[in-house]
Amino acid sequence: KNEVEQSPQNLTAQEGEFITINCSYSVGISALHWLQQHPGGGIVSLFMLSSGKKKHGRLIATINIQEKHSSLHITASHPRDSAVYICAVMRDSNYQLIWGAGTKLIIKP
Amino acid sequence: DTGVSQDPRHKITKRGQNVTFRCDPISEHNRLYWYRQTLGQGPEFLTYFQNEAQLEKSRLLSDRFSAERPKGSFSTLEIQRTEQGDSAMYLCASSLWTAGVNTEAFFGQGTRLTVV
């Protein structure tokens, strides 16, 4: 079993839909990252969470430390949101990032 | 500050040649990380620095790989005698670590290496 599990692996939705991507992990962590990777490989950091909830524009990330679960939500989705979204956890030791397999999101106009 | 920058963005090299990549972190960040991502896989940790000290190296970092951060600012990753299996995206990230707390890690755009 992978230490970081994401679901779904692939998600196709229509423009405007509310999107949820889930991440579960099984190790002790100091922080959890949500990252966005576009075709061509560039990675953008979206959020780093250690508790609670964060919001940037149309993006919302939540984490439940007791349940070892995090969600990334996109409101009013747009085709430019199409990308791979990666959940990565930083171990308690503070240097190793364990990456989920990613969720490929396609938003159709 | 323009964030974490990596140079070059793309590199094609012949097998057996040496290559060097550079990473410039966010200026006030004292931690710098190198990762490698092969096609279809998540990034794998290679090594990290706190200031100029290399604190951890992965088993993935063979003797052909060497990383430096001589002045605690930019870092270089050199691969000697490249092999086709070295073809990957090499990612750099930086963060500020103080008193046991790590701030958000910011990633560079990566250097895509193709060994032919």
Topology overview:
The complex is a heterodimer of chains A (109) and B (116).
Chain A lengths: L3 E4 L2 E5 L4 E7 L3 E9 L5 E7 L2 E5 L2 E6 L4 E6 L8 E9 L5 E3 L3 E6 L1
Parallel strand pairs in A: 2-11
Antiparallel strand pairs in A: 1-3, 3-8, 4-5, 4-9, 6-7, 7-8, 9-10, 9-11
Chain B lengths: L4 E3 L2 E4 L5 E6 L6 E7 L6 E7 L2 E5 L7 E4 L6 E5 L8 E8 L1 E2 L2 E2 L3 E2 L3 E5 L1
Structural summary, described in words:
The complex is a heterodimer of chains A (109) and B (116). Chain A contains no helices and 11 strands. With 109 residues, chain A is mainly β. In chain A, strands 2, 4, 5, 9, 10 and 11 form a 6-stranded mixed sheet that branches. Chain A has a 5-stranded antiparallel sheet with strand order 1-3-8-7-6, with no helix packed on it. In chain A, 0% of the residues lie in helices and 61% in strands. Chain B is mainly β. In chain B, 0% of the residues lie in helices and 52% in strands. Chain B has no helices and 13 strands. Chain B has strands at residues 5-7, 10-13, 19-24, 31-37, 44-50, 53-57, 65-68, 75-79, 88-95, 97-98, 101-102, 106-107, 111-115. The relative contact order of chain B is 0.33. The mean pLDDT of chain B is 88. Chain A binds chain B through residues 30-31, 33, 35, 41-45, 47-48, 86, 88, 90, 94-97, 99-102, and chain B through 31, 33, 35, 37, 42-43, 45, 48, 55-56, 89, 91, 97, 100, 102-110, 112.
